[in-house]
Amino acid sequence: MALNGSTHHNQDLLDAQLELWQSTFGYIKSMALKSALDLRIADAIDHYGCGSATVPQIVDRITLPSSKIPHLRRLMRVLAATGVFTAQHPPAGGSGGGDDDDEPMYTLTPVSRLLVGSRNLAPITSMLLHPALVSPFLELGSWFQEKEAPESCQLFKHAHGQTVWEQTDRDAAFDAAVNDGMVSDSHFIMDVAIDECAGAFQGIRSLVDVGGGFGAAAQAIAKAFPGVKCSVLDLDHVIAKAPCDTGVQYIAGDMFESIPPADAMFFKWVLHDWGDEECIRILKNCRKAIPPREEGGKVIIIDIVIGVGPSDLRHKEMQALFDTYMMIINGKERNEKEWKKIFFKAGFSDYKITPVLGVRSIIEAYP
């Protein structure tokens, strides 16, 4: 019989092993979620009015060979264990009818409800789990050992021989996945941003969404604040694919060269794509394009500020994971000191951080 101290030691070892396995098998959680998206399992469950369904009911709504149904049950067990769905098991010794009487009932959770409906996060989740964006991290260890110039340290290019932007130019399906992902994130986060921090957009007459793609964020601002003239600046090949009749103006241009004048410049998930020197160059162009602070001039940014916002472990971990993720394009997430540095070097005199967007914040920089 083990001594009490030895038992505690063994339990500590087993707990440590469990933590190690949690990290080791984290990719299976991601791939289970990707499979659920590929199979549209959440949509299949949502089809039933109560938002709950058994595996046979799910199979009725998705394309699946009969040989894979036992494996689907195992996938659903993982998705329930990780909180994507909940599973309610029938009581032991139930009615004893057919085989379906023994089937667990899977129900949408707040997580999986984000994957259904007209404005859902399935596109951005699918984008983040796209094989082209996941596979470079399999080579992260070898990438660290390669000697490269600082400006060339792009994990994606190391894996694929081209940058993300070059692949979007050459691969229409990948380009669509990226654009659809950005639009879905804008639909989600802009509703929250406008609800939680409307003051950031009040008192301005015009706004340019810099690097705004198809203009989902600008459209949300224009709808919430009809008195603000909203424009989108992006590269010409992006603007060429932009939708029509959105209520915003689309301008082809390069933010590194010049930015059209407006009271406010807006960036959502743009500046974290670039290093400090590139950001300073972009912000200097913004500084030239906006009026003084007393006339409403400002730059509004939605991005992560590391160490700001909720202090629980999940938020801290997610900010750290996002920062590592940005290695894929040699971008970075910044803490407040790093944001302050690029603002002041670009000629701005003050800033304000409002941490109301989960792991992200709204930042206002003033000339």
TrEMBL record:
**Transferase among the record's keywords?**
yes
Active site, UniProt feature: H272
**Taxonomically, which superkingdom?**
Eukaryota
Q: Where is the O-methyltransferase C-terminal domain?
A: 138-349
Q: Give GO terms: molecular function aspect only.
A: acetylserotonin O-methyltransferase activity
Keywords attached to this entry: Methyltransferase, S-adenosyl-L-methionine, Transferase
Q: Where are the transmembrane segments?
A: none
Q: Which residues form the O-methyltransferase dimerisation domain?
A: 21-117
Is Cell inner membrane among this UniProt entry's keywords?
no
Q: GO biological process: what's one of them?
A: melatonin biosynthetic process
Q: Which Pfam families does UniProt cross-reference here?
A: Dimerisation, Methyltransf_2
The record describes its quaternary structure and partners as:
Homodimer.
State the family named in the UniProt similarity comment for this chain.
Answer: Belongs to the class I-like SAM-binding methyltransferase superfamily. Cation-independent O-methyltransferase family.
Name the PANTHER family for this protein.
O-METHYLTRANSFERASE
From the Swiss-Prot or TrEMBL record, give the protein name. O-methyltransferase ZRP4
Q: Which organism is it from?
A: Urochloa decumbens
